[in-house]
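TL;DR need structure tokens for one chain.
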Amino acid sequence: MLFNSLTFALFLLIVFLFYWFVAAKKLKHQNLFLLIASYFFYACWDWRFLFLLLFSISLDFFTGIKMEESKNKQTKKRWFGLSVIINLGFLGFFKYYNFFTNSFADLAANFGVHLNSWTLSVILPVGISFYTFHGLSYVIDIYNDKIKAEKNYIDYALFVSFFPLLVAGPIERATHLLPQIKKQRDFDYSRTVDGLRQILWGLFKKVVIADNCATVVTAVFNNPNDYSGSTLLLGAVFFSFQIYGDFSGYSDIAIGTARLFGIDLLRNFAFPYFSRDIAEFWRRWHISLSSWFKDYLYIPLGGSKGNILMKIRNTFVIFLVSGFWHGANWTFLIWGFLNALFILPSIILNSNRNNLEIVAKGKIFPKFKEILAICGTFSLTTFAWIFFRANNLNQAIFYISKLFSKSLFSWPELFQKKIFALFFIFIFIEWVGREEQYAISKLGLTWKKPYRYAMYYAIILAIFWLNGDEQQFIYFQF
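>> reply
TL;DR here they are.
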């Protein structure tokens, strides 16, 4: 049930009406209904994996209680270890089993030992990386005495499986979402309208920007040998816009949908392509995952404390783990390694927190120096995205070698005026709204009704008339 489908629109309408007109009188009815709706939503992908989700929820729920009831640190540690090992075990099996068996067989072959690697046709359960991290953050926080164990199973289950965030985030924290789940929610018209606006902009980013880019990106990356260096450059730039429009569009729809039910989810994107350095980019891109790794891996490793070698080590650990989290392919590890390499100068020079505010805040135009910094950061990010998008390392290396050839200075074969016109409109709106939670958060609110609604209708018409071929959200594969 894709967010950009009519099926989901119908599902959302039914859930919204029942939630506010039937289940709204009592909190337990609200939560129980949302939980049932969330399980139905997940079962529509593949009902068999609903049992895996239920097992993961039950494991962490009862582990949390047992840890809190433990009379000594050793018992608490055993329960904690049990949850972490089982959760990571399931994640590792479904996501990485074939990668490790094939890699081991390839390594052995280099030493003259030929093994028949036994691989399985494993279907990756949608959302497993996300709901596993929800559960892990919960048990880690209990283990570190940051929160108390939740005693209400329905409330905890809803925290993990709330349908807007279930399959691709944002990755929530118990400290942020559970208090909202345990509090009575009343209908708020202004919040509902704001949620619909964010959903609308998310759909525009996904359907108009990302899906139009996808056609060119797929053609170029599947057959790089058939195109010039300039077209490969175009494909790389288009993928940068595709993955941003696709994933930030999903996040906007998820956050807007949650707001319809009186729940605020964590912000996941903050205009990352307006960043002036890689450190700023990673504070603005997939914020919930970046902060998860910072809190549960980077800081426990020592963070930015200690000597320079420790800082470098921690930086590479974070980005390599982040790359591996995205997928069982060497391309993701190289992508993580490159980002670690790009951010390293700011870590060494202690300048990684120089750009905390959005660029040109309170101004119409940025400085020329800021424009150069934005373009430089975007170029580095786009180069790294080539590895992220490529099917394997050989393809990525070939792609880059042909990109930096004489044909780089030729006219690209797949140049499309329509997409570049859409880019211009999209970047302009994002720039105008860059200081808000999402681009059209405040756009048009002070206009007269006819003009404001004309803007909404224009976006809706663009979604139906300027849409590309329907594509599944990229991050569903993670």
